[in-house]
Design a protein that fits this description.
The chain has 623 residues and is mostly beta strands. The chain contains 10 helices and 33 strands.
Amino acid sequence: MRKKIAYLLCIALLVAMGLTPMTETKISAASRASEVIQAISVMETDKGDTATGTNTVTRSMFSQMLINLSTLKNNVSSESNITLFKDVKKTYWAAGYIQTAVTQGWMTGYLDGTFKPTQGVKLQEAVYGVLKLLGYSDSDFTGSKISAIMKLYESKDLDSNISKAKTDKLTVNDCINLFYNTLNATNKAGTVYASTLGYTLDSNGGINYLSLINTGVKGPIIATGDWASQIPFSVSTASIYKDGTTCSYSDIGTYDVIYYSTSFKTIWVYDDKVTGTISSINPNYTSPSSVTIGGTEYSFADTDVALKFSAMGEVKAGDVVTILLGKDGTVVDVLAIDEYNVTMVGYVLSTGTHLVEDVSGDYSTSDYITFVDASGNEYTQDYDSDSVYLAEGSLVQVKFVNGSAGISSYIMSTPTFSSYTFTSDALYLGNKKLASDIKILDLKNGSYKSVTPERLAGSSIDSSSILYYELDGSGQISELILKGVTGDLDSYGIYKGLDYTNSDSVTYKYIINGKSDSIATDSVSSLNLTEGPSGFVIYDGSVTSSYALTGVAVSSIGTSTVLSNTTKYTLGENYSVYIYVGGEYVLTTLDRIGNLTKYTVRAYFDKTMATGGRVRVIVATSK
């Protein structure tokens, strides 16, 4: 670790190598639902296997689960002093739970006087129960009661990650998703249900995932040697999540960071590592509180790790190291580069030249590249342009071996998948399985964002859209860099038409995020000329091309979807809502145009939902 490398001064200070800390966005929807529901013990029943996700949930089990999801949790006895149904004796294990669920109006029996406690709970029965928890009564369901119930179920997005028909029986996994969706839904009064149970909400108004999961969690443990002996329960039978995705014991790698909960019998594993040159230890060696690598500052988790960066430790500015990040993105340990050799492949975003200072204090110029890897980590690395040719848009491989970086151009082998469609369960791309901790990056025109497999579920892409992929030792896809497949990197708004200012150019007028703007151009061949909602491709801050969006009439509005008759359309992350009045588009919010008796609403999407499209623009007009 005492080996130093040249210090880079001026605009680019040292080798900028950084890794964004783990955030909630890396957690898959399915894993988050499972962890939250497990954390608040909704699935715990006196009898019945709820550990196996494919097992059917019986009506008696569901009655206890409803109680667990209500304000009556821990206040209801399993015993009953009356017999409500001829097939539920007072001595039946769930008699008290069934009695409570029925008297509260959450469940009903059958006309023949039975409850059928061992029969699997049907979707429509389960939906009726959770809607009652949300404060809805039978008087809210006009016309066909079942149809009204199922329509409300869809409009409130209670069906997220559930693909069952109304008479299908639910599995453990179905119930987990239904209960998680219920927690994050608003009740009849407009309040998020989770908050009525005393759970804190995050900035998006949903149940605070990290607050729940962090309760009672111990660690960190670094995965080296016999690390499993430090956990006070059997690792082989524990639920294990790596970077938010379900995994097995064999998926835990050396130097992964581990946390555990004895009460949940659950292990959380984080593979967040930063390799690079330390540019500064802050504020100083006497009382260090953070370290800066590649322009990103990382705080220390505790005084033990801070001590390694102090005057009494061995880590100094200029060292090439690997820091290990814990669940909150803080540094929990540090490795010398010869302890953890690294190979990374990335997409070159830009090239340039800057000044460097050698050990004698003399200045010289050096070529450098800035590149991004599949994890969304951006790096800057010096290289010798006479030895290797690198340009924007090319792939680069960087190998750190014993403190030295080797840089070379990387040629990717042609993908040979059986198809280029992600399965609906987001587990495969063609015939290739996606690794449980796969890193996926969508990139376009120098902009990029990390995406989850669930975002691509069911989507078809072109083979040419795969800029880079990597297979792990099991032949599973562990990394993907894709070329603009989600559409999330474009901007969306309204095209307002052309102004012919002179004979040499025209002015193309548009609105993005409610702000009017325009560009002067002598060519409109790449621009959409259909006035109205449009997608805009931005490069270097300017619109370079555009395209029209497809619109549908909206019949119902949910929190993350809209319905057009019976077809559901998912809202994009940064959709915009406009009211069209007096010939102008005025930016507004979804809740202000939600009254469909007052407004005619149309939703505009970039491509079909089956190919990963999303609703990008919503326009309302007064009736």
